[in-house]
Each structure stands twice: as C-alpha cells, then as structure tokens.
Structure to design on (445 residues):
C-alpha cells in the first residue's frame, strides 16, 4: 500500500456478530498492509464504517455518522462505507455525499487494500458478490481472544418478507470443511478456548468431510469437539427449519457444545409467521424446544421477536406473549417492525402505527426482561465453569461467560483466558456473580 499518508485506521462496526467478525477481519487485513489501528476516528487517516441494514432508518443514521467525521478545519479522513448499507445503497452513496471515498459490500471487503489505492485517483464502488471465497484472500488471524468467532456460512435463501439479508449478503454459501477445521486449529493455537460458529443461517451449513462424506453442522461440531485445547463450542444464528435430528442429538451428546441456543421465532402467531414467510409454525417451534429440553434439560434458550408486523392484531401480539411465557427465554432480542425498501413486507397493506408498535414492544420487553432476571435467579447456587474474557470495572474484578452465556462477575486473581470454577451467588437483571471454588467441589455441566 503505497500511501504514506494513510498510517492509521479506525473501524466502527454496527449490528450483528457477523459484522463484528467482518470488522476484525478488515482490521487484520489493513494491519497486514502496514497500517496501525487508531484509538478513535479523530486520529485516523482512514475510517471504515461497517454498517448494518437491520435497524430502522439504517441508511439515514449512517449518513449522519459520516457527517460527524468532518473535522473543525473542514478536512476529513478517507472514508470507506462497508457492510450491508453499502451493499444496499451502492453507487447511490456517492450521489448523496461527497465525503465517502470507498463503497464496499460485505462480500468484497477483501479487496479493501486495492480499493484504497484506487481511491487516490477517484471514488470507487465494489459491491460484487464474486464466486471465489473472500476468506481465501484474507490474511491469517492475528488477534485472538479467549472466545473467538469463526464464520462457517454466509447468506440466506429463506427470503423472510421483512429481511434484506438475501439481497445484501447473497445466497447461502457454506465454507469448505477443511478450511473451517484448519482455521479452528489456528484459533486454538493462538489461545482461543471457545469458538462461536457464525452464519446468517448457520445450522444450514453443509459440506463434505475429509473422507468425502456428506455432513451437516452437527458433524462439523463433532469434529471440532476433538480439537485439544478447545473447551467450548457455540453457534449462531439458526433457523427452526434447519434444526436437524443430528443437531438436536449433538446438544445432548457433545460436552463441549454449550447448553445455550439462539433460535429466532419472530412471532407467536401462525398468521403472522405465514405473512413473514417463516415456513414454520408455533407448534413446530415449540416441539423443537421440547425436544431440545429432553436431550439437554439445562439448556438456555434465546430468541428474536418482531412486533408490529403489517397486519398484526392485538390477538396476534397476545399469542407472541403466550409463546414467550411458555418457552421462558434466558435472553432475547426484540424490535419494532420497520419497512426495508425492496422487501415484500414494505409494500404490504395494514402497516401498524408506530405508537402501537412501540407500546407493544414495551410490553414484550418487560416480559422478556422479567424472564431473563428469573433465569439468572434460578442459576444461583449452581457450580459451574466460567471462561474469563475481560477485566471488570472495579479493581480485582474479572468478567467471563457461564455455559448459559450469562456475564459472570468474579473477584479472583486470574488472567484472561483462564477457566475458573465458581458457585453462582447473586443474580442481577443482566449478570450474575460467582464465587471461586476448589476444583474438587465442582459439579458442573
């Protein structure tokens, strides 16, 4: 990269875990070219806004962010707009603002060094979805924490009527078995104790193992289970229609597979699910929950919910609350529906008034928060292992994750990456406290 003026970069990622992963990979890519991360956007020569298109008015919020990058003297850093907003907006970005130099989609960010070079002569756009894998062009992972993300699948073929992912991330593509296993070994060699497998529809992953045998995500998990030094395996995000018998069985048989599952349902109303093109029912979803609890009784469940979808009645909404009360999620993400241009739901009649959606969202979140707090309270007294991931706010505090993905605060003189045996002693709405115990007293999952 022959641009001596571009010495420092800053990447701000919005949205999902996939975007967090992409941000990490872009950082490693730029570092491999000799650049160094800046502490903030103000001190950076290059700013990459790695965007998400899920939230309401995502594009407008991005343009607001871009405007804030103008400095008091009227100058600005080189700006690259990446991610799903970049993919959806394309060259329109350059028509709306003169500040952006590079527009690059989520399947093309491995071209970022070349795009920076080209941007010296003029603004550039790359929103192609090439057949070759971007992962093959990315450098070896440099920064690895105690818990690491590993993308195994991208894109989605489900075409839910509210969702832009098929249009911004493309069709479902599974990474090859051998490359996933190789990267997992490399992550563990660099210190990862936990690996979270990522994909827009991660349980739709499929491939062939080294012997040429067809495998699903359960087979991949069982292969990762054999890696020495890897203590924990997770995966997200899944679709109910791809929860195979083998994957359900893996939750009861693979000890390294943590007792936690994020399985979005979106609504408890079959009428709304059909309008969303979810291709499952509340009955089939609850049957899955029961099967998972049968093989892993202590499993913690997480979900996604959209309220105020076009045509949603108070009865439809009540059915969502009823489903939540039956499942009792330990964690959940919820949103008020907002239309995404180009999606079928955006053109549906019976759009719900925003004040109605907001009121329903408040009621739904109150119930979800109540159940999350109750779940934390129910784990008090359990003995379990906590993987330490970072320092706490107070002196001597460390924070890690329980097998059920709770944040656990522990006062103990250990290092990041250590696994500590604790008894959970106190519960809050968003975290629990753990008291270290000796290993001979451990009775855990």
């Amino acid at each position: 990269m022959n641009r001596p003026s571009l010495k420092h970069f800053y990447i701000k990622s919005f949205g999902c875990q996939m975007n967090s992963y992409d941000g990490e990979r872009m950082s490693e890519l730029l570092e491999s070219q000799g650049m160094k991360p800046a502490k903030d956007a103000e001190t950076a020569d290059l700013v990459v806004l790695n965007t998400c298109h899920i939230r309401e008015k995502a594009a407008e919020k991005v343009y607001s962010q871009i405007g804030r990058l103008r400095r008091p003297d009227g100058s600005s850093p080189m700006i690259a707009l990446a991610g799903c907003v970049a993919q959806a907006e394309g060259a329109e970005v350059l028509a709306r603002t003169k500040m952006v130099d590079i527009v690059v989609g989520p399947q093309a960010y491995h071209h970022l060094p070349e795009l920076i070079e080209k941007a010296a002569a003029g603004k550039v756009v790359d929103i192609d979805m090439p057949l070759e894998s971007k992962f093959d062009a990315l450098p070896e992972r440099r920064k690895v924490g105690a818990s690491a993300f590993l993308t195994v699948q991208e894109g989605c073929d489900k075409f839910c009527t509210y969702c832009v992912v098929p249009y911004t991330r493309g069709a479902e593509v599974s990474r090859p078995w051998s490359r996933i296993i190789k990267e997992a070994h490399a992550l563990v060699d660099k210190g990862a104790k936990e690996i979270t497998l990522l994909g827009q529809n991660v349980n739709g992953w499929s491939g062939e193992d080294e012997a040429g045998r067809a495998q699903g995500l359960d087979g991949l998990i069982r292969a990762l289970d054999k890696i020495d030094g890897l203590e924990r395996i997770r995966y997200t995000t899944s679709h109910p229609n791809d929860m195979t018998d083998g994957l359900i069985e893996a939750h009861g048989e693979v000890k390294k597979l943590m007792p936690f599952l994020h399985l979005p349902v979106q609504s408890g109303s079959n009428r709304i699910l059909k309008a969303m093109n979810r291709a499952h029912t509340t009955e089939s979803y609850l049957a899955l929950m029961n099967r998972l609890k049968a093989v892993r009784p202590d499993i913690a469940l997480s979900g996604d919910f959209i309220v105020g979808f076009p045509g949603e009645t108070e009865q439809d909404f009540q059915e969502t609350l009823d489903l939540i009360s039956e499942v009792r999620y330990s964690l959940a993400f919820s949103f008020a529906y907002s239309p995404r241009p180009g999606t079928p739901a955006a053109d549906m009649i019976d759009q719900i008034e925003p004040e109605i959606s907001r009121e329903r969202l408040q009621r739904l979140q109150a119930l979800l928060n109540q159940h999350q707090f109750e779940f934390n309270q129910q784990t008090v007294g359990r003995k379990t292992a906590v993987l330490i991931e970072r320092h706490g706010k107070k002196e001597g505090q460390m924070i890690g994750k329980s097998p059920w993905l709770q944040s656990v605060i522990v006062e103990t003189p250990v290092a990041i990456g250590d696994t500590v045996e604790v008894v959970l002693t106190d519960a809050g709405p968003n975290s629990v406290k753990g008291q270290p115990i000796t290993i001979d007293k451990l009775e855990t999952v």
Summary: DSSP finds 13 helices and 21 strands in the chain. The radius of gyration is 23 Å. The chain has three domains: 8-126, 148-378, 383-441. The domain at 383-441 is CATH 2.40.50.140 (OB fold (Dihydrolipoamide Acetyltransferase, E2P)).
